[in-house]
Amino acid sequence: MSTRHAAGPIRVLVADDSSTMRSLVVEVLSAVPEIAVVGEAGDGLQAVREARRLEPDIVTMDVRMPNMDGIEAIRRIMQERPCRIIVVTGVKDERDGGDLSLRAIEAGALELVAKPASGPEEIERFARRLTTSVRLMAAVPVVRRRAMAPGDTTPTAPVAVPCPTNDDAGRVSSRRPIVIARAADRRVDVVAIAASTGGPPALATILGGLPQSFPAPLLVAQHMAPGFGEGLVRWLASVSPLDVRVATSGQHAVAGCVYLPPDRHHLEIDPGGVLRVEPATGGHCPSADRLFSSVARAYRDRAAAIVLTGMGEDGARGLIAVARAGGVTWAQDEESSIVYGMPRAAIVHGGATTIVSLSQIAEAIVGLVAQPHAP
């Protein structure tokens, strides 16, 4: 694992086959004092060469480029000289290109930023989004490890560990492995999952490992840039035997289906198992806290909530609500998380009762929902 040196500006390589778009990205980033654009690339092959030569902290990468597309370039960079990669692409290209951006995340990219439409307001929003992403991603450690493919069930140890008592510095002080206990007197009737940075490949691993006959609905709050939500749904559906859908208000959540909210909407569920989507007005979107809190109210001790990799603390308060209602609460372990912010917050604030390795979550979830109802 490597981290960026604190001294000096954030060094960025800009890769895009459009000279107009490259110039815009360079102009936007160069206007920020703590960011330095150290190079440009007009195709994927050049991006790989320049990443090797310049060793940037961050690469902004288009996906549709000549000679070598962005996806292959990301794979090569992550193999040869890993760094943080932000995909900057057009939403229309995404829809027409078979969800290339999600495949880029699978290859190792961390974040998606949509190219702006014409007009000063769109460009201003794009500039804010891009510069914020660069600042945030610069703090993310770069980890060299084998990519985990959907359905990968290679055993790792430990399967799970109890959430420890944190020391004064908030460090994890206990790593004693335990086996996830299956509830003997009840079963889980809904599973809610939240994730942010690094979440799509983690979700693919989990959903790809579940059986088509999975006997409960799954509700997902994955932080995603506007314009890419439907692509995420299509991509997850392609790697999972389950029915992955965009949720709509008023529909009943049914077993064997995975529900994600539309772009710019939150997802909740009521005690009758009816889904509700509401427009987001600010903050994290979709909100993990809102999803988990609704699950706690609706299902109480028949709910399971899981916080996966991601930046920030969204989900920590909602997980506490599920725990207080008697439900099952897990957090992904640090070793398999791309960013340990959300899982760590869930642990530090006391919402998560168990730390679980990504490669074992699917099997563990099946164990939770397979129990018969208590008489």
What topology does this entry show?
Elements lengths: L9 E6 L3 H12 L4 E7 L2 H11 L3 E4 L8 H11 L3 E6 L1 H6 L3 H8 L3 E4 L5 H18 L22 E3 L27 E6 L3 H10 L9 E5 L6 H11 L3 E4 L10 E4 L4 E5 L5 E5 L8 H12 L3 E5 L8 H9 L3 E5 L8 H8 L5 E3 L1 H12 L6
Parallel strand pairs: 1-2, 1-3, 3-4, 4-5, 7-8, 7-13, 8-10, 9-10, 13-14, 14-15
Antiparallel strand pairs: 6-15, 11-12
Helix pairs in contact: 2-3, 3-5, 7-12, 9-10, 10-11
Rg value: 21 Å
Average pLDDT for all residues: 87
Q: In terms of structural class, how would the helical and strand content be classed?
A: alpha/beta
- Give the total of beta strands: 15
Q: Which fold name corresponds to the CATH topology of the largest domain?
A: Rossmann fold
Any idea what the shape is? Answer: elongated
Total of DSSP H or I helical runs spanning 4+ residues: 12
- The largest beta-sheet arranges its strands as 6-15-14-13-7-8-10-9
User: In the CATH hierarchy, what is the superfamily of the largest domain?
Assistant: Methylesterase CheB, C-terminal domain
- Largest sheet geometry: 8 strands, mixed
The level 1 CATH classification of the largest domain is: Alpha Beta
Please, how many domains? 2
In the CATH hierarchy, what is the architecture of the largest domain at level 2?
Answer: 3-Layer(aba) Sandwich
First and last CA, distance? 50 Å
Order of helices and strands: EHEHEHEHHEHEEHEHEEEEHEHEHEH
Fraction of residues in β-strands:
15-25%
Low-confidence stretches: 145-161, 165-184
Estimate percent helicity: 25-40%
